[in-house]
């Protein structure tokens, strides 16, 4: 019995390491090889304070956890501003140096470690046997697991997955990804600290070997074996791999040989897994939000019926393919059957025309890459309630201009103001919050999230994404997320994709993905939208659908600058256009006027 | 502190730095051109040293033992690229760098413990290169030290000339800049990757022989040098030419050794860590001034290379 409980205890301690690492690596895609070292920071702190200063368990637990979390945050702070490989470098540094320091410093007992740790006790009662320690370990392990679950399977975890997939996306939607990554790294390092403290009390000693680099790799093996971004998988992976240990020990080889053999098998398993089944035993969960299924959402959306009646009758006739319909999104839903033809276009209830008037003004904006001036002295004004078409040959600087406006690149010279704000002093993620958001020419949906999640993630100020409300005010978090989903559903309905809401975004066709991307940028609530080639690679039928949606934007009080090559699409938008060539604005006016410009003819018709 | 003391430390800094530089130039070539986060670089390192020692025990002359050991390390590195990394990259596309890194971790565990299983965990020295001290102007070093410094300079200079002057070298650079385009003009990037792994592993093999001869080979001998290689490459920038990587390595060696004028040798890894942190903090400040990052975090890592 004690033998079984001993194994359970060890698995629970390992599970803390593996589940927290899964939040970091599986969900957020940030690799760390220092999870064992962070455990070691907790463990050594606890061991040192207990053996040398007689601190009680709870005090060492708190200090050990905080110590690991603080070191984690300090390491993450510089590393997480860069691509993930910088984090590998820094965590490798932490792992190497941790081992170096604890095995050479005399106050930590060198290779022999620290002995004489006071056993865990309640009052005068000492907990020494595995079964008496089980409740303490189980409570902490379950608590950590629950926190990991809340972090991963929540709107917060959705941002983590978005970061893993393509960090530019959450940035473009107003998420402070660096802060989120650093927080996650600090929290998971703290969790490793908890596991380290428990391990030290459980073994009644601290040695460098308990927290070696091999241990860190073992955690990774357990994680990927069970399944990346699947916490149930982490339980299974940890249990199976740990349980395989004693079986190997019973093989007819010496004890030291067996442990080497065991490590070789783990390593080989890791390679084979990555090669043939990188997702691991259990796949990532498709949907995390129990509530807010389509059935629940439907009443909030209102009635179905032809939308944009006036604008679209002509095109709807020809376009049989795209989902015919759309929806009225009136706030007061119960109004009887479908509205009669000719009803003025109805739009998402809470998207009543924006009261504020936004104006984005650039003057003399320039950007050079090496010897090439990609954007050269551009003056442009974009107001809410206005559409502007931006045309020009490939390499004219349109996408670079968007990158400058959205904060993905910094201009060399020029000014950029939104109303009274100097946007150049504002980082990319905050520009979306101020009301200017971009879409991407190459779409960039998060393929392994549902369509609905891809759009819900854009909701501004969703309390469900904040740890404060996730842990402190769960009902607020829940309400926030339900609101975000309801609104996302409205936008999906607006573009006619409500039926696809629960499919994975990666499963959709190109045209549908473009529409999802458009709903995503609409759902940011931004007044000014920068739409980068919304129709490139889209079938004809979808193009008309897109045009209907974009034409409606000014009446919602929103403005958009649309980069386009497709002139017939721009004609559908019927808006003033700007022609760019070689980084400069070479003409302004209606499409027809621009057709007279010589360079434009050259660029588009080869004349 | 005396002038002689400074001279001694500077000399050992250059010697250690030459080793860093070899490792960095090799890893930088692999990382810069193939984009693989080749953690198992440490496995080739350890295996090259162990095989050289083994060949010596079988009676091979010293040069043959060195060449044979390095050759086995190269076979391992090239084999990993050919049968593990390339199929994964084919299958996973953009998602592959991360997965390849995890697989690479697995390889290091297999090789490290495999070596331990075969040869045991005790240190095994590589003998045959003279470790008789030479004294020049009060600064003491050995022929072995001289060997690694000269080898580093010669190999790095040769690599640089190869990359710049020869057709094959230009092909490698073409693959770095744009693999698709390179394929379009008849270059086969997969083949080039294998060559790059071979060259990179030769450089780390030389450093491995030096380490085995200077102290001893142990199963985990590759981990610390791997870190040194990463460090050099990240500090210098992975697109930099080999000579810059060597210079960075020597600079690091000098910092690590000269720091012993002020702090004890036990803490020299911490000095290096401080350099790294300071560099990153500096870079991060630069980035937030330039906001967002110049090295685009904002592109998937796979694309950025």
Describe the structure.
The complex is a heterodimer of chains A (607) and B (305). Chain A has 23 helices and twelve strands. In chain A, 53% of the residues lie in helices and 11% in strands. Chain A has three domains: 210 residues, no CATH class; 58 residues, no CATH class; 231 residues, P-loop containing nucleotide triphosphate hydrolases (Rossmann fold). Chain B is mainly α. Helices cover 75% and strands 3% of the residues of chain B. Chain B has a two-stranded antiparallel ribbon with strand order 1-2. Chain B is globular, with a radius of gyration of 20 Å. The relative contact order of chain B is 0.20.
The description of the largest β-sheet of chain A is: 6 strands, mixed
The pLDDT mean of chain B sits at 86
Give the number of domains of chain B: 1
Largest sheet of chain B: 2 strands, antiparallel
**Structural class designation of chain A:** alpha/beta
User: What is the fourth-level CATH superfamily of the largest domain in chain A?
Assistant: P-loop containing nucleotide triphosphate hydrolases
The 3D shape of chain A can be described as elongated
What order do the strands of the largest sheet of chain B run in, or round the barrel if closed?
A: 1-2
Query: Which class of secondary structure composition applies to the elements of chain B?
Result: mainly alpha
Helix content of chain A: 40-55%
Rounded mean pLDDT of chain A is 85
Strand-helix topology:
The complex is a heterodimer of chains A (607) and B (305).
Chain A lengths: L1 H26 L7 H19 L3 H23 L4 H21 L16 E2 L2 E2 L3 H23 L2 H11 L2 H5 L4 H27 L9 H14 L4 H19 L5 H22 L17 H8 L7 H10 L40 E11 L2 E12 L3 E5 L6 H9 L6 E6 L2 E2 L5 H7 L1 E3 L12 H6 L10 H6 L1 H21 L15 H14 L4 E5 L7 H13 L6 E5 L3 H7 L3 E5 L2 E6 L1 H5 L2 H8 L2
Parallel strand pairs in A: 5-10, 5-11, 8-9, 9-10
Antiparallel strand pairs in A: 1-2, 3-4, 3-6, 6-7, 11-12
Helix pairs in contact in A: 1-5, 1-6, 1-8, 1-9, 1-10, 2-3, 2-4, 2-8, 3-8, 5-8, 9-10, 9-11, 10-11, 13-20, 18-19, 20-21
Chain B lengths: L2 H32 L6 H17 L4 H31 L3 H24 L13 E4 L2 E4 H23 L1 H11 L1 H6 L4 H26 L8 H14 L5 H17 L9 H23 L10 H4 L1
Antiparallel strand pairs in B: 1-2
Helix pairs in contact in B: 1-5, 1-8, 1-9, 1-10, 2-3, 2-4, 2-8, 3-4, 3-8, 5-6, 5-8, 9-10, 10-11
């Amino acid at each position: 019995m004690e033998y079984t409980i001993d194994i359970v205890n060890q698995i629970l301690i390992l599970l803390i390491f593996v589940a927290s690492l899964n939040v970091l690596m599986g969900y957020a895609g940030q690799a760390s090889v220092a999870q064992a070292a962070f455990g070691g920071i907790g463990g050594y702190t606890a061991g040192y304070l207990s053996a040398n200063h007689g601190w009680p368990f709870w005090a060492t637990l708190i200090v050990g956890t905080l110590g690991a979390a603080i070191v984690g945050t300090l390491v993450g702070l510089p590393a997480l501003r860069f691509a993930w490989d910088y984090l590998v470098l820094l965590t490798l540094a932490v792992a190497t140096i941790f081992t170096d320091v604890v095995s050479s410093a005399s106050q930590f007992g060198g290779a022999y470690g620290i002995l004489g740790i006071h056993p865990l006790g309640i009052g005068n009662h000492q907990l020494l046997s595995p079964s008496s320690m089980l409740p303490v370990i189980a409570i902490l392990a379950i608590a950590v697991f629950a926190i990991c679950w809340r972090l991963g399977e929540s709107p917060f975890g959705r941002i983590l997955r978005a970061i893993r997939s393509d960090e530019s996306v959450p940035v473009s939607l107003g998420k402070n990804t660096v802060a989120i990554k650093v927080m996650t790294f600090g929290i998971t390092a703290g969790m490793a600290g908890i596991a380290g403290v428990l391990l030290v009390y459980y073994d009644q000693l601290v040695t460098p070997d308990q927290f070696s680099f091999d241990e860190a790799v073992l955690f990774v093996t357990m994680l990927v074996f069970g399944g990346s971004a699947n916490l149930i998988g982490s339980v299974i992976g940890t249990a199976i791999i740990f349980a395989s240990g004693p079986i190997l020990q019973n093989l007819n080889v010496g004890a030291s040989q067996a442990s080497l053999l065991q490590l070789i098998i783990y390593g080989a398993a890791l390679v084979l897994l990555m090669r043939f089944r990188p997702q691991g035993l259990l796949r990532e969960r498709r949907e995390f939000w129990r509530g807010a299924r389509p059935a629940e959402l439907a009443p909030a959306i209102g009635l179905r019926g032809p939308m944009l009646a006036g604008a679209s009758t002509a095109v709807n006739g020809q376009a049989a393919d795209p989902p015919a319909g759309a929806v009225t999104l009136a706030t007061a839903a119960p109004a009887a059957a479908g509205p009669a033809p000719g009803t003025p276009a109805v739009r998402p209830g809470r998207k009543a025309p924006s009261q504020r008037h936004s104006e984005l003004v650039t003057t003399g904006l320039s950007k050079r890459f090496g010897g090439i001036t990609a954007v050269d002295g551009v003056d442009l004004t974009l107001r809410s309630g206005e559409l502007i078409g931006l045309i020009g040959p490939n390499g004219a600087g349109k996408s670079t201009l968007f990158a400058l406006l959205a904060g993905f690149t910094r201009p060399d010279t020029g000014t950029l103001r939104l109303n009274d704000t100097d946007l150049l002093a504002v980082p990319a993620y905050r520009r979306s919050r101020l009301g200017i958001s971009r879409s991407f020419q190459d779409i960039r949906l998060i393929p392994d999230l549902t369509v609905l999640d891809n759009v819900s993630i854009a909701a501004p100020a969703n309390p469900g994404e904040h740890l404060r409300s996730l842990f402190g005010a769960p009902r607020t978090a829940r309400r926030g997320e339900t609101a975000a989903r309801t609104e996302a559903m409205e936008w999906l309905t607006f573009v006619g994709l409500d039926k696809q809401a629960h499919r994975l975004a990666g499963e959709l066709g190109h045209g549908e993905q473009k529409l999802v991307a458009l709903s995503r940028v609409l759902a940011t609530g931004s007044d000014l939208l920068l739409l980068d080639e919304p129709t490139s690679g889209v079938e004809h039928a979808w193009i008309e659908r897109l045009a209907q949606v974009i034409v409606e934007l000014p009446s919602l009080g929103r403005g958009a600058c649309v980069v386009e090559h497709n002139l017939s699409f721009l004609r559908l938008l019927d808006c003033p256009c700007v022609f760019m060539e070689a980084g400069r604005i070479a003409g302004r006016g209606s499409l027809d006027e621009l057709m007279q410009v010589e360079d434009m003819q050259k660029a588009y018709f080869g004349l | 502190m005396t002038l002689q003391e400074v001279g001694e430390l500077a000399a050992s800094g250059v010697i250690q730095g030459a080793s860093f530089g070899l490792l960095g130039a090799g890893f930088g070539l692999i990382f810069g051109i193939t984009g693989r986060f080749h953690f198992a670089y440490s496995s080739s390192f350890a295996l090259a040293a162990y095989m050289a020692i083994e060949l010596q025990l079988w009676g091979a002359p010293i040069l043959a033992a060195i060449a044979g050991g390095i050759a086995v390390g190269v076979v391992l590195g090239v084999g990993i690229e050919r049968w593990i990394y390339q199929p994964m990259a084919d299958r996973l596309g953009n998602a592959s760098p991360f997965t390849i890194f995890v697989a690479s971790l697995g390889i290091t565990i297999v090789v490290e413990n495999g070596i331990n299983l075969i040869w045991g965990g005790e240190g095994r020295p590589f003998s045959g290169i003279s470790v008789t001290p030479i004294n020049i102007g009060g600064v003491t070093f050995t022929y072995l030290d001289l060997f690694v410094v000269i080898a580093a300079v010669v190999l790095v200079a040769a690599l640089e000339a190869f990359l710049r002057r020869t057709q094959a070298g230009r092909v490698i650079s073409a693959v770095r800049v744009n693999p698709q385009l390179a394929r379009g003009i008849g270059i086969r990037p997969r083949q080039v990757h294998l060559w790059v792994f071979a060259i990179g592993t030769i450089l780390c093999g030389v450093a491995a022989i030096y380490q085995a001869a200077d102290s001893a080979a142990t199963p985990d001998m590759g981990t610390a040098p791997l870190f040194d290689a990463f460090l050099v490459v990240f500090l210098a920038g992975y697109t930099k030419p080999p000579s810059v990587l060597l210079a960075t390595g020597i600079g690091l060696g000098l910092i690590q050794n000269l720091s012993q004028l002020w702090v004890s040798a036990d803490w020299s890894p911490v000095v290096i860590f401080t350099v790294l942190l300071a560099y990153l903090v500096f870079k991060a400040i630069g980035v937030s001034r330039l906001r967002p990052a110049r090295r685009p975090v904002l592109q998937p890592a796979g694309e950025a290379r």
